[in-house]
Design a protein that fits this description.
Jelly Rolls; alpha+beta; single chain; globular; four-stranded antiparallel β-sheet; 226 residues
């Protein structure tokens, strides 16, 4: 059987590997893909939640803007990651914005398909429990480093958070990312992100090249305090 574009995209997703052929066939027929340009909104705060969204190729930022205009960055999502699993379980508007930091190709699973998988796949439910637990742990750590850590350490923890095998399974240790994107994800300016990356490079935790970062010590990056 010829592999369809959607099936190829799903190959990056951990949860899809545990489904039956019949389940995969139904999902393929009901999902679609869409390309979002750099700077474009994937979804906005206040939107109704109608789909589970996956990243085939690209980099997204989940954030919110306060009434005073301050932007708070929650998380970055890269290849193989999915967002909105918790929001789909609740009948309420979306609580955050998601913006594409670069040209991205996304997958969209309708809410009805998501609900059907919940009703028909025990492995999918197990994946979601782990996914939600990993997301909770990520957000707890984000609150910690936003309130307690200096900018160098915040950049380190933000980069390390991208390398979660459940939240971003398709990402490799050579990360195609610009210093501006690092700043966007960590809530700092490009210049401040550049300074932090120099500190982390001197510490031997990563190597900075033009348009990319290679992680040398992921455990050290996760524990960096400055």
């Amino acid at each position: 059987m010829m592999e369809t574009p959607i099936r190829s995209m799903l190959a990056k997703s951990i949860w899809a590997q545990a489904l039956t052929e019949d389940q995969l066939a139904r999902i393929e027929s009901e999902m679609y893909s869409r390309k979002i340009p750099a700077g474009g909104f994937v979804c906005r705060k206040g939107d109704p939640v109608t789909h589970w969204i996956g990243v085939h190729e690209g980099l997204l930022k989940m954030s919110s803007v306060s009434p005073e205009g301050k932007t708070v960055s929650f998380a970055g999502m890269a290849n193989g990651g999915w967002l909105g699993e918790g929001s789909l379980l609740k009948e309420e508007p979306r609580k955050y914005d998601v913006v594409a930091l670069r040209d991205s190709e996304l997958m969209y699973m309708p809410k009805a398909t998501y609900a059907w998988l919940l009703d028909n796949s025990i492995p999918f439910n197990r994946f979601l429990i782990t996914q939600l637990n990993e997301r909770l742990g990520l957000f707890i750590s984000l609150v910690e480093y936003d309130r307690m850590l200096e900018p160098d350490a915040r950049v380190a923890r933000c980069l390390a958070a991208l390398f979660n095998p459940y939240l971003n399974p398709g990402i490799g240790l050579n990360l195609q990312i610009s210093q501006e994107e690092v700043g966007n994800l960590s809530g700092t300016s490009r210049q401040r992100a550049n300074q932090a990356l120099q500190v982390l490079e001197k510490a031997g935790l990563l190597k900075v090249d033009y348009g990319s970062i290679t992680i040398n010590d992921l455990a050290g990056l996760r524990q960096f305090h400055g």
